[in-house]
Amino acid sequence: MASNRQATRAVLALGGAVTLSLGSAISVAAAIIGSVTPSEARPGDRVTLTVQGFAGQTQTVYLISTSDFERQIARFGRQVCNTAGQTALGSFTWSGDTGSLTFTVPDVAASQHYFQVHVPKISPDCGRIGGASGPLLLTVLAGTGQEAAARSPVNPLAPFVLIAAVSVGTWLIVRLTRQHT
Fold first, then answer.
1. Strand 126-128 and strand 60-65: pairing?
2. Are residues 140 and 94 in the same domain?
3. Is residue 173 part of a domain?
4. Span 30-69, pLDDT tens digits
5. Which of these, 29, 77, 100, 170, is most buried using a 10 Å CB contact count?
6. In sequence order, what are the residues at sequence separation of 6 or more whose Cβ sits closer than 8 angstroms to the Cβ of residue 157?
7. Is the domain of 20 the same as that of 44?
8. Within this chain, do residues 56 and 73 fall inside the same structural domain, yes or no?
9. What is the spatial distance between Cα 35 and Cα 132, in angstroms, rounded to a whole number?
10. Is the pTM of this model over 0.70?
11. Is residue 179 part of a domain?
């Protein structure tokens, strides 16, 4: 009878340990659910990423093309943040359980991209952000060339400053030449 009780206790203890392990694995594997507006953009466009989950625990958000993501999984066997092919976008600003990040789409290849986020106190510490029907995607469209113009605007007064400088230089040359004759 005593051995049956010990066996029952051992089975219950093992069952409890398995349940706790599964419970913690589920909480770790719980996805960060998000949305992106707009879901299609060109390099240089502004986009807002909004998420629910792991409030205040996340660090850097990364953008990674779906093909680079597949290469990452093939190389490491899991998701890894801050590796080749990823572009750091910044960190979420949290208000309660909602995080948001507004960023400028970097100069990346036109394709579909996933969002990955580093959450240091869980294992694994890098995860893909999910959407309503699977992984959250941003479709990056081919650039229009406007993003280069937006980075280096020309001051509209530049031609006038150039004309003034040439005029002053010409006046000085004429004046110096007249003084020596």
1. unpaired
2. yes
3. no
4. 468 999 999 999 999 999 999 988 878 889 999 999 999 9
5. 100
6. none
7. no
8. yes
9. 8
10. no
11. no
Beta bridge partners of 111: 140
The full length of the chain comes to: 181
Q: Which residues pair with 168 in a beta bridge?
A: none
Nearest Cα residue to 34 out of 12, 54, 9: 54
Q: Evaluate whether 32 touches 51 at the Cβ level (below 8 Å).
A: yes
How large is the greatest C-alpha to C-alpha distance in the chain, in angstroms?
128
Kindly give the pairing relationship between strand 33-37 and strand 46-52. Answer: antiparallel
Phi, psi dihedrals of residue 36, rounded to the nearest 5°: -130, 135
Label residue 133 by pLDDT band (50, 70, 90).
confident
pLDDT digits (tens, 9 = 90+) for 91-131: 999 999 899 999 999 999 999 999 999 988 888 889 999 98
On the 0-12 / 13-18 / 19+ scale of CB atoms within 10 A, 6 is: exposed
Residues 2 and 66 reside in one and the same domain:
no
Total structural domains within the chain: 2
Query: Distance (Å, rounded) from C-alpha 48 to C-alpha 25?
Result: 30
Cα end-to-end distance, the chain, whole Å:
128
SS3 10: helix
Question: Of 86, 97, 87, 12, which is closest to residue 51 (Cα–Cα)?
Answer: 97
Q: How far apart are CA 170 and CA 167, in angstroms?
A: 5
Tell me the two tokens of residue 37: 């507006």
